Amino acid sequence: MTNPVIPGFHPDPSVCRVGDDYYLVCSSFEYFPGIPVFHSRDLVHWTQLGNALDRPGQLPLDAGTPSSGGIYAPTLRHHDGRFWLIVTLVTEGGGNMLFTATDSAGPWSDPVRLPGVPGIDPDLAWDEDGTCWCTVAGVGQVRIDPYTGETFGEPRKLWSGTPGAMAPEAPHLYRIGAYWYLLIAEGGTERGHGVSIARGHAPTGPFEPCPANPVLTHRSSDRPIQNTGHADLVQGPDGSWWMVLLGVRPRGGTPGWHVLGRETFLAPVEWVDGWPVVGELSPGLAAPGWPLVPGPVEADRDDFDLSELGPRWISVRDRAEEYCTTKERPGWLTLRARGDSLDERDVVFAGRRQQHLRCRVRTRIDPSQGRGGLAVRLDEEHHYEIEASDGEVRVLGRVGPLRAVVASRPAPAGPVVLGVRIADAPSREARTGPDSLTFGIEEPDGTFSALGTLDGRYLSTEVAGGFTGRVIGLYAAAGTVAFDWFDYEPLAD
């Protein structure tokens, strides 16, 4: 088995167990719909059920929301017969919000606002008498009424983590055995990231730190998984303990670039003298001691035959049907332009997370009434695309303040197949990037004609900054464009 268990841009995992079933959510930042919801029976194979925030009233992301703004660090819990989801919306008029559902696949409620809860990374925990405690980055805590959003008293400081460590955040509070445990991330979500824990006899503390903190970190190591942190604990089917957490897979030369974003990994946990000891976290995951239950295999190709896009499709900030629909032209995805390029925050875009280090993506586009194409996006200032208009195809690159037409060629009238192949960088020198992206057009006989190859390092977090990962998808930049199909093909190592 392999780690990550949920590859691609799926950061800040939070997990809960309900009977024999497991449910997990992740951050989604500026993308709509928000907060992907996954289900598993074995902690290893995960199937996306939907997205918790799939209505504009739940997730108001306007053009003022910056990239890497939006939805931060949800916590998912199951209590008193329902699912509870608490999250921070980082945008004008945002703040902490709470949603509920009786079915994790939805529908989820409208938000309960929590104006008395400061900060980010909110957690929920209930003590024996039903009191609900909300713990936030910092690490502070306040009692809340989860039904109304009312807070009781002022937030109070619980624990600041390891002295000298930056950014104590991502708190999760649990009752395990005789103690309440407070699990946090610290060190920042970059190479210094780690997981630390403290315990006390009450949910309000005082908390004593684990003498072996951090209980997990890969800082200052050459391990292939880095930035390890933002963890959550859960019991396996056999009663063993496990940790889900985020990590990245940097590649290339110095300093190493990760392009898929922060991904969800799984690691075993044992308890020794009342403290968790985290086992080996590596790309090869040892088989757990219970039967594996693979979920349904998702098709690599989408022919846009359904009335709605599937749950893995995400758009930038919103997805109004007047701009993005499969209903206007049966069997096609129709996009109507709003912003005139991927540089604009209101661009009409629909894509899916890049989940494999190597892949080939193709689409058949009809640009006879507009201009659009196939893009690999990190944010408004870092994206590559191959774009078709009536009679021309061109490859474009945007890196910071620079925007260039990399290559162009005439195109035949009518629909055309555009493609991108993402593969290892051709050399292994110290300054070699993590991968290369080759854009081109498919000829009528099925051969691929490359137009331009671009260095993948410029679509990485180490260059662009922020908290997301690559999303590959379709966009409209002028008029109306339609897409017959979209094919995402993972490639072998």
Automatic annotation (TrEMBL):
The keyword Hydrolase applies. SUPFAM superfamilies: Arabinanase/levansucrase/invertase, Concanavalin A-like lectins/glucanases. The keyword Hydrolase applies. Pfam families: GH43_C2, Glyco_hydro_43. Keywords: Glycosidase, Hydrolase. InterPro entries: ConA-like_dom_sf, GH43_C2, Glyco_hydro_43, Glyco_hydro_beta-prop_sf, Glycosyl_Hydrlase_43. GO terms for molecular function: hydrolase activity. Residues 301-489 form the Beta-xylosidase C-terminal Concanavalin A-like domain. CDD domains: GH43_XynB-like. It comes from the Bacteria. Belongs to the glycosyl hydrolase 43 family. This is Glycoside hydrolase family 43 protein.
